[in-house]
Amino acid sequence: MRRHGVPNRALSVRTLLHLPRLARPNGSVARQQVIAELNRNAARLQRDQQAIESLIPKDKYLLPDLRFVRLGNSEADQVFSRLHYLRSARAGSVNFALVDPVNRLPVTLCSVSPLEWMRVGRQLQTQFGVPLGAAWDVSRVYSFDVAPVNAISFLLSKVRQVIRREIPSVQLLTTAVDPNLGFIGSSYRAANWQQWMSIEARPYLYVDSIYASPRQLRTRYGGANLTELRRANVGTRFEQSRAKLLDSVIYCCRMRGETAPVPLEDQRRLRR
């Protein structure tokens, strides 16, 4: 369904990403603030959609009709930089997609790149025997509202097959799922991924009321320390969320054989 002329799911995720900027330490937000944030994000999402309108699929197809392809950086970067809630593409990624059979437009897409999160990498090595450098990360996933049910899990299964065949040094795929944005990992579980650990949440960061990741801050401003950024960029407003956020969950999938579940008592909570 669509409201404000944009897909409900995409609008919901964007709004949830920005509400912590307004939330009190106890997590509460005034109703009028929620409405204002919905309207603000809907307007931005409309502009983002218009900027890449030629890449947005309009027609619905059954899952068997979609074609699995390696997607060029130009198309993938435009979608991720405009429509993914982080509004950025991960540099150096390999991109894959399910495209429609007529216009070859991406319906569901993802990017995969070597795991850069060293804290996760070290835990994978210590607890599960996965050597450093042998884990890759599904860093971006986006699915248009015309995508059929199970499109993401189907894409993930195809990606696993390709990487296992073409990059045999990769032993494991990982991803981080943020429950604060309404994600519960159902597509990963449907593709036989398992929850192996969690990682402590850090505050969301914002520049002039717009979310920015630490990576984006370092790229744009040379650092992510808000005190230093405020001192060096007078006139720019840097903020962080104050309400307590839920931990991110790390899902994993072995490239060969079954991915064994990890009992909750054996799952480690990693510190930032």
Describe the protein.
It holds the Pfam family Mom. With 272 residues, this protein is an alpha+beta fold. The chain has two domains: 1-51, no CATH class; 55-204 and 241-270, Aminopeptidase (3-Layer(aba) Sandwich), CATH 3.40.630. The protein has helices at 8-18, 31-51, 73-82, 118-128, 151-166, 186-190, 214-221, 226-232; strands at residues 2-3, 6-7, 67-71, 94-99, 106-114, 135-143, 172-177, 194-199, 205-207, 210-211, 238-240, 248-254, 268-270. It has an eight-stranded mixed sheet, sandwiched between helices. The chain has a three-stranded antiparallel sheet with strand order 10-9-11, with helices on one face. A hairpin with a 6-residue loop joins β4 (94-99) and β5 (106-114). α1 (8-18) crosses α2 (31-51). The longest helix has 21 residues, at 31-51.
Percent strand equals 15-25%
CATH class call of the largest domain: Alpha Beta
Helix content: 25-40%
- Total tally of structural domains: 2
Return the average pLDDT rounded to an integer.
96
**Total strands:** 13
In angstroms, what separates the terminal alpha carbons? Answer: 37 Å
Decide which structural class fits the backbone: alpha+beta
Query: Any idea what the CATH superfamily of the largest domain is called?
Result: Gcn5-related N-acetyltransferase (GNAT)
The largest sheet has its strands arranged as: 3-4-5-6-7-12-8-13
The major sheet is characterized as:
8 strands, mixed
Based on the coordinates given, report the CATH architecture of the largest domain.
Answer: 3-Layer(aba) Sandwich
Query: Outline, from the CA principal axes?
Result: globular
Instruction: Round the Cα radius of gyration to an integer and report it.
Output: 19 Å
